[in-house]
Structures are given as structure tokens and as C-alpha cells.
Design a protein that fits this description.
Helices cover about 55% and strands about 15% of the residues. By secondary structure, the chain is of the alpha+beta class. The strands form 3 sheets. Strands 9, 10, 11, 12, 13 and 14 form a 6-stranded mixed β-sheet that branches. It folds into 4 domains: about 100 residues, Arc Repressor Mutant, subunit A; about 140 residues, Rossmann fold; about 90 residues, Serine Threonine Protein Phosphatase 5, Tetratricopeptide repeat; about 140 residues, Tetratricopeptide repeat domain (Serine Threonine Protein Phosphatase 5, Tetratricopeptide repeat), CATH 1.25.40.10. The longest helix has 17 residues.
Length: about 525
């Protein structure tokens, strides 16, 4: 069952250890949340005291009175927030049973997007989302290739200045789902939706695509393409050009030419980068280590492949911050970032990864934002550029600009897998300027979006301390150490070159919660 459960007015996030009523977190400790998770997962079924104690106090021998106290807290919070204390039934000498409203699993990305942007208005310029294409090949191992094809179409469209393009990270939410184009368009806040299918067999690729006007449901344009696999890059650009032409037939020829861009000479290198990309995006040490093996092979095949270098820089950055702050990882991040900038002057994603690594690991903010500004000039719809830029601005102490960039990134990509970073930047920025309620709310959103990332719980800890919620702050601090046992905030602040005033304020709050410098 999903680790996010919805019942009545509540959403229960087991991974984050938080009960939400609407968009607001409830003041319920992690042990009480663990009890509620087990009860709702087994809704309507008796749950023994022994099973509940093991869920909330694993491996510990405790008195039944502890369970009674925590269960009373659960009932009290449910009743205070619109539920009922009778939703949890006591079974004398046996245990408890959840008998409240029906419990349903909830998708994490959809929940995060609803919190981030519950109502999206159409941008003031033409807007489009490219949904994941359906794999009609018999070989499901071709999924990565099809995702890469769609990604390149999105990248091509993003290079047109007057076009608002939703990022791949948000449209990927619809992969494997049956979805109406009009519904997807409304959820993403765009006027046009491109959908299609791909069949790859031996040395040929067949693509069908159609562009739908969300406001009417009418098909604006549809086409079939049948090309040799060796022509895949030309095919991707051709589809992008057709879409642009369908949206605005009167566009200038110069704008059409912007869709084309430099491609790697080696299809094998391109294939390796496609395979590595999901692990790079995860930001988790084990996965990025796996990605690096593929990226190193791609670079060996094509040493000037900017996107391979940019991805490698991000992998080493992740390993530097999350796997011991080893100088070799920092140096490798900077090395690959510089190579990405050298070879990727027309590649927005390569410049984005590189700029982030240069800023965070080389502490050269001028060079970092030169790269990010270049990425935005190439691809004005690059959500990731704004999101990662907001993180750097937050640590640098530029709070208002960080919030602005994070909001822009989330509008460009409401379902983005990097949404947690945008919320984290908002939490850090609100904290820095003394808006502690806003900081806590943003931190909760970040935790919801990525419960496994320790830094999200760091910002939550600090905000809760400033709000005087010390028990909740200590619970959040404990979660930091569960996820990152060697965490020391002084080393973390030094690693990201945190602004001195922000470091002092954050450090004071984290110390109160029990974290060490």
C-alpha cells in the first residue's frame, strides 16, 4: 500500500512521519503517527497491542501505559481537526481497530503538486506540455529510449523564447497512466498538450504525435513519422518544429532555427546518458554512484559530451555533500562542471548542472550564475535552472530572490521531482528573514516531497525551534540523524558556503534541538 494514505479530511504520510489535515501538518509525534499508519493500513481489522508497540517502539520493551498515552493523543488530534475519537475502537485485552472513513492511497507527486499550486492560471504566452509517449515496442527495455526522445522534444521546444513549456519532471508523472489530454492540460496549467507513441524495431523508429488544444479538446495537428534510427535526432527536432508551427504559424524563421542544437556524435554515448539520467535525478548516493559508471563510459566514447559531464558533476556533488565531504568528490564535481561549461554553450541542462556544482562546490557564485543565466537564455522554460538557482540563492542569503526563483521553477514544473529543493530553498529563505511560520510550512512541503533527504528535516528542525515547538523540533532532529548519522551542521554550512548570518542563526536553532556542530 502507498505510504501516503487519505481518509476524511486527513492525509497520513508514513515516510515523512506527518499527519496533515488539508495542507496543514498536525501536532502529532512520530510514535503516534506510526500507530495511526498501522491502524489505517489495516482499516477494519483488529490490530494487537504487540503489533502496535513494535511499530512505534521497535525492539523496545515498554509498558502498555505508553501505548495508551499515544493512542489518546491520536484520538485527541483527530477530534480537534474534524475527525472523531470513535474512529479508533478499543478492543479490550486485544488491541485497537480503525473504523473511520474509507482509507485510500494517494500519489506523492499529485499531493505535492496540489499543495504547491492548487490553482494554475494560463501563462500570458502560448503554453504546452509534452506527455510521456506510449511504448508500442515489444521490448519494454526501450522505455528509457522513448523517455529520452520525449525529453529531447521538450528541450527543443524550451528553446523558443515566446513558448511556455512544462518540464519533463512534471509530465513524467503521467507515465503509465491513462489520462485525458484535456485533464492533463488543466492540471498542468497549459493550453496545448502533445501526446503520442513510439515503436522502435531493429534499425527503425516510428513515431505518431498529436497536438490537442485543451480549451476545446480539438486536435490542432497530427503526424506520423517513420525514420531510420540513425536519424533520431533529426526526427526529434522535426516533431518540435511541427508543434511550434502548429501553435503559431506566423512565427519568425529565426525562432524556428533555435530548436536545432548541437548533438553528440556518438549514439552509444547518448544511449548511456539516457540510461544514467533517472539515477542522476534521484540525488541519492547509491543511485548516483551507479549513474557515474555509465557516464564515465559515455565520456570515454565522447570526451566533449557536455551533458555527460554536467550529469557527472551533479553526481559528484551529491557524493561530496551526502557521503562524507571528501575533497576528491568536490574536485571531481568542479572538474566535470568546467568541462560541461566548456563544451555545452548551447545545452541548457548541462549548463544548469554545471552552474550548480560550480556555485555549491567551488563557491564561485559569479561563474555559477553566468552559467544559469546562459541556460535560461537558451531555454526560458528550464524549471530546473530556476529551482537549483533558488537553492544557491538561499544559502547565499538572498532570500527574496530565492523565493522568486523557486516559485518560477515550480510554476514551470508543478509535479517536478526536484520540487523538494524548491520548497527547501523557500524554507531556508523564510527562516533567514524571520518568517518562521512560512519557513515551517515550506519545510513540511519539502519533507512531503522527499522524506528521505536529510537536509529537508534540517530546515524543519530550525523553523520549529523558532516557533517554540521544541518537542516537534527534537523529533525532526532525530530524523536528520536517522537519515544522516554523521551529520554536523558546521561541516554542512562550510560545504555549501552558507552566508555567515544565516549560518549563525540556523546553527543556534539546531543546537537547541540537540544537533551538533
Amino acid at each position: 500500500m502507498s505510504t501516503i494514505l487519505e481518509f476524511g479530511p486527513f492525509r497520513l504520510d508514513a515516510d515523512a512521519g506527518i499527519l496533515f489535515c488539508g495542507a496543514e501538518p498536525a501536532s502529532l509525534g512520530r510514535r503516534a503517527v506510526a500507530l495511526l499508519v498501522l491502524l489505517t493500513q489495516r482499516a477494519g481489522v483488529p490490530v494487537s497491542k504487540e503489533a502496535l508497540i513494535e511499530a512505534a517502539w521497535p525492539g523496545l520493551a515498554i509498558e502498555d501505559s505508553n501505548l495508551t498515552v499515544q493512542m489518546a493523543a491520536v484520538r485527541r488530534v483527530l477530534a480537534e481537526l474534524g475527525g472523531g475519537p470513535d474512529w479508533i475502537e478499543t478492543l479490550p485485552r486485544r488491541g485497537y481497530r480503525y473504523v473511520g472513513p474509507a482509507v485510500a492511497p494517494l500519489d506523492r507527486n499529485r499531493m505535492v503538486a496540489a499543495v504547491a499550486a492548487p490553482t494554475l492560471t494560463l501563462p500570458d504566452k502560448p503554453s504546452v506540455a509534452v506527455l510521456p509517449f506510449v511504448n508500442l515496442s515489444e521490448d519494454t527495455d526501450q522505455d528509457y529510449f522513448i523517455e529520452g526522445t520525449v525529453d529531447d522534444i521538450i528541450t527543443g521546444l524550451s528553446r523558443v523564447n515566446w513558448l511556455f513549456v512544462i518540464a519533463r519532471s512534471s509530465t513524467a508523472f503521467y507515465r503509465g497512466r491513462t489520462v485525458d489530454a484535456k485533464d492533463a492540460g488543466r492540471e498542468l496549467g497549459v493550453r496545448y498538450v502533445l501526446e503520442g507513441s513510439v515503436r522502435r524495431s531493429l534499425d527503425r523508429v516510428r513515431v505518431t504525435a498529436q497536438l490537442v488544444d485543451v480549451s476545446t479538446g480539438a486536435q490542432v495537428w497530427a503526424e506520423r513519422f517513420d525514420r531510420p534510427y540513425g536519424d533520431i535526432f533529426a526526427l526529434q527536432d522535426e516533431i518540435a518544429l511541427w508543434v511550434v508551427g502548429a501553435i503559431a504559424p506566423s512565427m519568425r524563421r529565426a525562432e524556428i532555427r533555435r530548436v536545432g542544437r548541437k548533438r553528440p556524435d556518438s549514439l552509444d554515448a547518448y544511449d548511456l546518458v539516457l540510461r544514467a539520467q533517472p539515477d542522476v535525478d534521484s540525488g541519492m548516493p547509491e543511485q548516483v554512484t551507479r549513474a557515474l559508471a555509465l557516464l564515465e563510459r559515455a565520456i570515454a566514447l565522447e570526451p566533449a559530451y557536455a551533458l555527460a559531464h554536467g550529469n557527472a558533476a551533479m553526481c559528484h556533488h551529491c557524493l561530496f555533500l551526502r557521503a562524507g565531504l571528501q575533497e576528491a568528490e568536490r574536485a571531481a564535481s568542479i572538474h566535470h562542471a568546467r568541462a560541461a561549461i566548456q563544451h555545452g554553450q548551447d545545452d541548457a541542462l548541462a549548463l544548469t548542472w554545471a552552474g550548480f556544482s560550480i556555485g555549491m562546490d567551488a563557491h564561485d557564485h559569479a561563474a555559477a550564475f553566468t552559467a544559469l543565466d546562459a541556460a535560461i537564455a537558451i531555454s526560458p522554460s528550464s524549471a530546473l535552472t530556476y529551482i537549483l538557482g533558488s537553492v544557491m540563492l538561499a544559502w547565499r542569503g538572498e532570500a527574496e530572490r530565492s523565493i522568486e526563483w523557486s516559485q518560477r521553477g515550480l510554476r514551470l514544473s508543478p509535479f517536478d521531482s526536484w520540487a523538494w529543493a524548491a520548497f527547501d530553498a523557500q524554507a531556508l529563505s523564510h527562516f533567514h528573514i524571520g518568517r518562521y511560520e512560512e519557513a515551517a510550512h515550506s519545510a513540511y512541503k519539502s519533507v512531503q516531497a522527499n522524506p528521505a533527504h536529510s537536509i529537508t528535516h534540517v530546515q524543519l528542525t530550525a523553523a520549529l525551534v523558532r516557533l517554540g515547538r521544541l518537542d516537534d523540533a527534537k523529533a525532526a532532529a532525530a530524523r536528520v540523524l536517522e537519515l544522516h548519522p554523521t551529520f554536523r551542521f558546521g561541516r554542512q554550512f562550510s560545504g555549501v558556503n552558507c552566508a555567515p548570518a544565516l549560518a549563525a542563526s540556523l546553527g543556534e536553532a539546531l543546537s537547541i534541538a540537540g544537533l551538533k556542530a
